[in-house]
Amino acid sequence: MGRKAQKNDSLPGSLDMLILRTLSRSDLHGYGIVQFIQQSSGNELLVEEGSLYPALQRLELNGWIDGVWGVTSNNRRARIYRITAAGRKQLAAETRKYARLTLAIARVMGAQ
Amino acid sequence: MLRRLRYWRESARRSEALREEIELHLAEKAAELEADGMTAERARAEACRRFGNVGLKREESREIWMTRFWSELGQDVRYGCRAMAANKAFSALAVLSLALGIGANTTIYSFMESILLRSLPVADPESLVVLNWHSRPPRNAGKEWVHVMHGVQGMAWPGGKGSMVSGMFPYGAFEALGRDNPVFSTLFGYFNGLHHNLAVRGQAISANTEYVSGGYFRGLAVSPAAGRLIDSEDDRPGAAPVAVISLATSQNRFGGPSNAIGQPVLVDNIPFTVIGVAPPEFFGVDPAAAPDLYLPLHTNLLVDGARAARMYPDGNFYWIEIMGRLRPGVSMAQAQAALAPRFHQWVAATATTGGERANLPALILNPGAAGLGSLRRQYSKPLYALLTMVALILAIACANIANLLLARAAARRREMAVRLSLGAGRLRVVRQLLTESVMLASLGGAFGVLFAIWGVRSLTFLFSNGQQNFTLRAELNWNVLGVTAALSVLCGLLFGLAPAIQSTRPDVMPALQNGRGGGPRRRAQHILVIAQIAFSFLILVAAGLFARTLDKLHSVQLGYARENILLFSLNARQAGHRDPEIVNFYADLRQRFESIPGVISATLSQSSIINAGFAGQAIRGPMKIGPVTIENARALAAGPRFLTTMRIPILAGREIDGRDQPGSRPVAVISERLARTYFDNGNPVGRRITLPDEKRDLEIVGVSANLRYGGLKNEEESAMTVFVAVSQFPPDRVTYALRTAGDPLRFVPSVHEIVREADSRIPVTNVVTQAAEIDRTISRELTFAKLCTGFAVLALLMACVGLYGTMSYNVARQTGEIGIRMALGAQRGAVVWMVLRRVLLLAAVGLAISLPAALIASRLVKSFLFETRPNDPGTLALAGAVLLGAAILAGYAPARRASRIDPLAALRQE
Questions:
Q1: Does ipTM surpass 0.90 in this model?
Q2: Domain layout of chain B by residue ranges
Q3: Is the pLDDT of residue B637 over 80?
Q4: What domains are there in chain A, each with its CATH number?
Q5: Are B64 and A30 an interchain contact pair (Cβ–Cβ within 8 Å)?
Q6: What pLDDT score was predicted for residue B601?
Q7: Are residues B894 and B835 in contact, defined by beta-carbon separation less than 8 angstroms?
Q8: Residues of B with CB below 8 A from A3's CB?
Q9: DSSP B133-168
Q10: CB-based contact (8 Å) between B29 and chain A?
Q11: What's the rounded mean pLDDT across residues B813-820?
Q12: Tell me, what DSSP letter sits at residue A79?
């Protein structure tokens, strides 16, 4: 009722896309995702930790990721997230959009 | 959506998981920080700091999953409450008009539910069927009776295509159908024994009696409140006479069901033993009559004597009603197919002539779940008419509120525009507005139920109209309340939807700019007002027609006194009095009644004049004057001073008096019309009326004025009356009439006392004033007239409020325009006329639409009218005039306000 499917805003650097991308490499739990994004961006991108969980819930509600209880590397119980087929499709779409956008921005910047 | 629902179900577990997840996150972060050299405590604090507000984030995460629907609904309800509180006058008006509309609908529906829809309170009512038959009417073209049914005790009613339907059968048919029955597990018979004298320990009451066959209680699957019920062993000639009584009777007479078992009682002076008490909810098979006493079928041989003995073997006398319970898996159609040939074969053998053979009754089965249909036949049409009316009223109420909401939507247009431009979804705003209107409607529904409680009570009172043991019990059960709730929500959506959509139109910019509404809303308002006026006109016409009918009925010339007469009935024969003593007993009582101080005169007759049509003739067979048979005359056995007491003028000779004794010459008094018809203006006094069947002659001793017989709606021909002496043709039951000085009911205690002194075994029944008894025959018309008048006032009021609201709004909207007009020199009168002209235009359009509808609809109530044509021009004109008058009244206040507009102030506002 009165509620749209929760779409990512698709701004560059958006959290949803980053999470999906991270999960497309390997299944991880919440803290693992934060760490992976930080490390793979060379500590350039700092994920606002508090925003991660609402984002995860949103992605799960949309059916793009799936969370199951598992065990972390240091043997603690955690929810491990896994990307779904729909999630991969969404990731592909967002990647394309992101590429177009960065290209456009690059063009503008280059024109200067 | 499905996923969301599942999630909602699991939300508690989900919430716990989220907490654990965040906890883990913080722990891992802290561990990492600790590895970098922080103390455990500081690491923990730093982790929390970096995470942010844990509670808020958790809340946010949950919010994403938590069905937003509920939280938004909560918001909407809170907002709705504030909106309602902010607009108290509007809310109160809306709730009140809805409460009246929904209350009226609930009341009428609860009656329909109890009469038309409710099942008998027995196990598995769906497998019960009622046996009926249908044939062409018994009278042929020459008005001769040609039918295998030579006599009937009970009812026949018109079926489709001019046929006749009845539920009465000869006993032989009951036996033939019940023998080796393949389709019914039980087939049982019964007949209404009307009133019998039930004496318990010397105290007598008049008990409504049902004679039932041995399979009756078994077939209905009723279990006793105490003792046992009648079974096949009790229902055969010569069995010990036993009786089952209703729970109410056991409580009133024995002080409880268990005390009654095994007690001796007298039914019309015949000893019976009470063996059981029927359960409290059981009222027999006819919702119209709740028996006090159940007797085995064959005990009518003891109680009714020779007359009953003649009924059993007579294949042409129809008197027993039959119901059956279908065997499991047998459909009604199968049962009909199995039984119809059997009945045909049986009934063909009872035909005595070719004419009778050509019009044999054919068996039909009807569903028996709701019991017999007498109440349904009597009330279904009036109830449907009433339901239509209250539905119209509710429609007017809804239109009214929709109208008010539209006007209010104009006021809230800026608010809506702001909300929309701030990014609220249109659907979301519509939903919020609908929540508000459904809240209003629900509140209206809740108050409506209160109105309905009162309504059911007063309508029961109106319907019963003084009838003793009125059995129609409407109640507000869950079924009714459920319908009311659904109706309320529907109303809320109905009147809320259009205004909600209107006020959230996406063209927000103009509204933001100047806050003035556009054209479409005004058009919608006008359509609503026109609809209201059209509906009100329909109800006004109905009210007018019924009021006119009532007026006609009240102006009917009865030919006898209506006021200051007390009526009551006694049946001494049922208490054991026999000929010839019974004549003296009745005569003696009459003299004692006449000697009560304040009683001017007392008389007795076989029945009251109003009931004479149902009480049967006082004499058997035709009446002849010489060789000529008197057609269409009624004979009524009356006692001394009957004409005096009833204030019927004596035109010639004398009335029946104390000289007319059982042994003396039989006499008659005839009415004027009869005298003119058969004696050609000659003096009939001294002439004779012959009774071939009774082998007696009557000497005409007097001529009375004409009187109207048996009810107000009867034809003129009922004015032909032959009074015979009650002493010479003694009936079983008599009705006394006392002419009193002052209120007749004041004398009731004295009457009871005198009868108790004379014989305490005789109950005094049907105590009523003549005026009340006359009104009872027109109770349906009275009820209709009262209800419709009430409904019409309500409808008119609501329509006027709607009109007033619309015009006020229009005037407010046109303030600027009117200001300019006045500044340019328009006179006040012209401004008033400008507004009123629009009012009249709306009313005229409403009338024009409604008139054809009224002409068609009034034909549907034709059967309720008396000497009034359904399209009575006077009534239509009056209804139109009332409506126009009310419209002008409603429009005058806004018009006046318009004329008082100060041009300067108005223009400055612009």
A1: no
A2: 2-66, 126-369, 376-554+779-909, 573-761
A3: yes
A4: 15-111 (1.10.10.10)
A5: no
A6: 93
A7: yes
A8: 68-69
A9: EEES-SB-TTS-B-SS--EESS-EEE-GGG-EEE-E
A10: yes
A11: 82
A12: E
